[in-house]
Each structure stands twice: as C-alpha cells, then as structure tokens.
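Memo to structure team: turn this sequence into structure tokens by end of day. - J.P.
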Amino acid sequence: MKPPRLCFNLCIAAAVGVSPVSADASVDFNRDIRPLLSRHCYACHGPDAGARVEELRLDTAEGAAADSGGRRIVEPARQDDSKLIARIESSDPDIVMSPQPPRVWRSTCNILKWETTSGPDRCRRALYTYWKYTSPYPVMTTFDAGTAEVCQNHRVRTKAPLPALMTLNDPVFFEAAGALVQRMSDTHKELSDRIAHGFLRVLIRPPTPEETARLAQLYESLSHDFASDPDAATELLNSAGRTSGDAAFIAVAKILLNLDEALMK
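Reply from structure team:
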C-alpha cells in the first residue's frame, strides 16, 4: 500500500516537533496538538469519514500515529523516524520547485509553501518538477499536460494563444533564454553564427538566410533601444538570472523559444 498523500503535512510536523520541553514535561494531544489540527486539517483528515482523504485520521492521537500498510507517517517522540518529517525536510534533488507566480500553490487543506529551488537543480528538466494533484504546476496545465490522475496514451497538442504568452513572460522562459544565450555566445562570436547555433539548439535545423537577416535586424534594433534605456536592459538581465550580458540577445533567444515550431514540432 502506498503511504497516504497528505494534504496537510506541515501541521503534523509542527505537532510532532512542538516547542522544546523539559524532560519532565508532557505534551497533551488534546491540549497542545488538537487545536492546531482542528483549524487546518479536519476538513480532509477529521472525524467525517465521508470527507476523509485516504483514511488518514488526525483528530485522534491514535489516528495520527496509526500504522498505514506497515508504515507510520508519524512516530511519536521519534522525529528522525517519522516519514512525514523526512518528506518535509527532504533535500531530494529529484524534487524540483521551479519558479511560479506567488499564491498559486494554495488550497483549503494546505499551508505548505512553494519553496523555489535554488542552485543547479533549479534548471532541471520538467520531469523533476514537484507535482501536486490539487494545484498542478501552472506552466504544465497551460500547455494542456495531464493531471496525472489517470494514464494517458496521447497528449493533446496545444494550439492556443495563452502558451505563447507564457513563453514570453514566465520566469522559467526568461531564465531559459539567458542560458541559451550563454551557450550561443560561448561557441561563436559572429552574430550570424550565434543565431545559427541557437536555431540548431532549439529547432534542430539551420536558419534560412531570411530568418537570419530578420533576427539580426531585430537584434540591432533592440541593442539601440537598450543602449538608450539601461534600466530596462538591467531588468531583463535580472529576469533572466544574469548579472551581466547582452540583453538584446536574450530577447532574441526568447523569440526563438516562443516560435510555434519550437513549441509544437
């Protein structure tokens, strides 16, 4: 049996890890823990059997520490052995929380916060993005990803304006454009060669002469604009996770990532 999916993990962790007490002090479930759980957890894990999620009951001390298929979610007085504590404090690199808008990851039965991953793991493939059934990662839902509640043998091909708008404005795509520019600039110095490298990386084909000319013209125009507005250039660099660089070329890279051919083929 799989361990229950907890819709209110953090409050149980707080209940188990209550404020430090002296060796002769005692923690009473009804006095110290039940009030916390009743405010936040009973809608999904309370006395109402019809509304209870996966038979995990938190309104009694026995229910919170009950055996679940050979595994205990909470081990009383043994935080290091509690599966719940391990999940909350895990630094598992296979779980990534990519940037997303604030206040998206909220629900009635959850006070867990979306802690955006930092460091190299922040840029891992979407396969590793943390998945919550009641509040899926918004980029994935915008691109018509499945809910993961049932198996799919075919993905819907997204054909709507909203995904294109997201690739132009979402923080993930700003940072992806910054990383793409880094690779394009590290391998080539000439503008046309950098554009060609970007095409190969994103579209797996070389650009036509017309495409190269249009992007080169766009780059020159943006370079002029950013030269006259350095604050806008700095803002774009910061959005792409860069402290320095070529803001105009990052904008060009964002155009490549926004192409229908890049998203759909």
